[in-house]
Amino acid sequence: MGRAVSEAQDGWSRWPAPAKLNLFLRILGRRPDGYHRLQTVFQLLDWGDTVRLRLRPDGQIRRAVSQAYGVPEEQDLAIRAAKLLQSEAKIAEGADIFVEKIIPLGGGFGGGSSDAATVLVALNRLWAAGLDEDRLAALGQQLGADVPVFVRGRSAWAEGIGEQLTPIALAPAAYLVVDTGVGVPTAELFQAPDLTRDAAPATIADFVSGSALGNAFEPVLRRRSEAVEATLQVLSQLGPAALTGTGGGCFVRFGVRADAEAALARLPKGFRAWVAEGVSESPLHRALGQR
């Protein structure tokens, strides 16, 4: 999915919107504004959605499929991103938007955030809006804490509410990714009484050494969801299993793709699972360089 094709005769262009994994996630405390301070590592993947865009001369922002993937148009982050960029850059043109949805909703894989980031980055190019990466990332933060990492397009160590990003070189890896179908509203999870909110700060060196692992939401979701608990038990027989983000998505890390593919073949029937490879640079940013 690493390439944006040139515009077809009907005017559509295609842009990657990659998924992500949180390789660890801890919560350090709560800020005065109510947001939680956290630390995490975002691993971008070579697997995800595709966003199709077609410019309009009338200034309207429209979703090509009215009831796409069960999200009302006014709540669709891709649509909101286009309108935000249009307003910020004072763009007279509009756009039709269609998301070829692969990333499961609510799984913690960052699909909505990635779609929004792709719209910001791609329309900034197509509209010749001229916003730099910092301004696009700031717009993205208005849409969600995970959007800036996709705008910047590099796997990263993250702090603050997830917007303070330091690019990090991660060892090559392939991941067995599983969608449990369990989705719990993020706000509800952050309010869970059994959530650990006062973890000690870690460093990048702690993560690299393996002493900073785990996801603060994993024990909460394991207690709340039989599906998450059962999935992690099955995956733990294949390797070190973990939860990503605040959804029900799970993964196991392998050194090479062949091992991940072999683990995929060993899963019981009924599992919704994929193999994806980690990337240091987003497929979206590689696509930008090819246009």
Notes on the protein architecture:
The protein is of the alpha+beta class and 291 residues long. It has helices spanning 77-89, 111-126, 133-143, 147-152, 186-190, 204-209, 218-224, 226-235, 257-266, 283-290, and strands at 13-30, 36-56, 61-63, 94-100, 156-159, 164-167, 174-179, 241-243, 250-254, 272-279. Strands 1, 2, 3, 4, 5, 6, 7, 8, 9 and 10 form a 10-stranded mixed sheet that branches. Helix 1 (77-89) links the parallel strand 3 (61-63) and strand 4. Helix 1 crosses helix 3 and helix 7 (218-224) packs across helix 8 (226-235). The longest helix is centred in the middle third of the chain and has 16 residues, at 111-126. The protein is globular and about 55 Å long. The chain starts with 12 loop residues before the first strand and ends with a helix.
Query: What kind of assembly state do the chains in view correspond to?
Result: single chain
Indicate the mean pLDDT.
91
Largest sheet: 10 strands, mixed
Global morphology: globular
Terminal CA distance reads 15 Å
Percent helix among the residues?
Answer: 25-40%
The helix/strand series, from N terminus to C terminus, equals EEEHEHHHEEEHHHHEEHEH
Q: Which strand-content bin applies to the residues?
A: 25-35%
Essential attributes:
alpha+beta; 291 residues
Short description:
With 291 residues, the chain is an alpha+beta fold. The chain has helices at residues 77-89, 111-126, 133-143, 147-152, 186-190, 204-209, 218-224, 226-235, 257-266, 283-290; strands at 13-30, 36-56, 61-63, 94-100, 156-159, 164-167, 174-179, 241-243, 250-254, 272-279. Strands 1, 2, 3, 4, 5, 6, 7, 8, 9 and 10 form a ten-stranded mixed β-sheet that branches.
